[in-house]
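Holo prediction. Input below; ligand is arginine.
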Amino acid sequence: MSHIRGRFQKAADELVVKYTSSLPFDWRLYRHDINGSIAHAGMLAKQGIISAEEAEVIINGLVSVREEIEQGIFQFKLELEDIHMAIEARLLELVGKVAGKLHTARSRNDQVALDMCLYVKEAIVNTLTGIRQLQRALISLAYENKSVVLPGYTHLQPAQPVLLSHHLLAYFEMLQRDIERFKDSLRRTDVMPLGSGALAGVTYNIDREFLARELGFSQITSNSIDAVSDRDFVIEYGAAASLCMMHLSRLAEEIILWSGAEFNFIELDEAYATGSSLMPQKKNPDVAELARGKAGRVYGRLVALLVMMKGLPLAYNRDMQEDKEGLFDTVETLLSTLEVFSNMIKTIKVKVENMERVVSRGYLLATDLADYLVSKGETFRNAHSIVARLVSYAIEKEKLFSELSLSEFKRFSPLFGEDAKSITVASSVALRDTIGGTAPKQVEKALAAAKKMIG
Ligand code: ARG
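Structure of the complex:
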């Protein structure tokens, strides 16, 4: 557009046009940009900066531009640099010279800051919905398998029996923290920058409170220099998204392990697995693997944003255009991962017998035997080493605890009595009846609380 070449006589170099244009990706801001412009035009008219008729022509024109974009007939011209210029240029074609009044009391710097705020606010709302959906899927899988016992692991070694529902609720908790993080960041994103001008404010009698109300913001920024050069809210989204992807990646890793032949704890629906082009027997958990891989990509975007910002003097610098692809990619990656995970979780078939087999084979009741000795007066440290020796003995004899006789038990401690034999997986789980523990009573309560939370 001629007016942004301003004092220049030369047209921009073709390569430079291509290099500097953000249109190939920032078209995603079109809805927010148009909403911002409609509010701005309305405010200019209300304040008598432009006439009501001019505002009406501009607003109708903007609505037409939006329709053209949504119908796919809008011409995106690279040389128009960015979505803001592209929309204004088309407005000029549609409504004529009056289009030039829209940018009164506004700079692209506060305009793009506004668009980014609006985009991130919407992304947060969609993210919250996506996380809730996944929480819902986890809760229903937990209810379906309420009393199934899973070998709980530490160091990836079978440790103690836990309820599968308890294990799934652990992910519910992580996701709940994610929800809180996104909600918290929403408070800081919900601050309207428009009216900051290029950096110093504007000379017109604008009404920023009106703009905030029109655009659904609860606050307005209080420093124009900060307002045009702040991208904290973009980085915060990236940070919260990174944590959330880390949680999803851990869940992915468990799904991958559990669906492998060695664990064989779950069966993934065929719709969420793929075959191998070479090995006919394969059923690969690609969705989970990709989610695990995409976590790295989201972290990369976050680091890129932090590094891009760290050296920038106030206020706006063109470097900041680089915030867009990272943000868009992060939002799209997180939302699609949440959605595909919710659907995948719903289709998981739990192989109860296989989980139970590991629970009964792996000496997972060793801690319970030590606790038993403590109840008979032994110190925990001694009880621990007695049971450790008992485990070595059982391994050597290739016997499970349940296959040892009382006299064999007594060889390790005279405190063992007949009642030691009544320690079972069920009693082990039931005894962990503290708040946050895996006892069915506790898990029942936690499930009910979680269900209530997701509404
Ligand atoms: N495309 C630019 C960006 O994304 C818009 C702001 C441009 N402002 C400017 N003064 N060149 O950051």
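Strands lie at 149-154, 157-163, 191-192, 219-220, 266-267, 349-350. That is the main takeaway for now.
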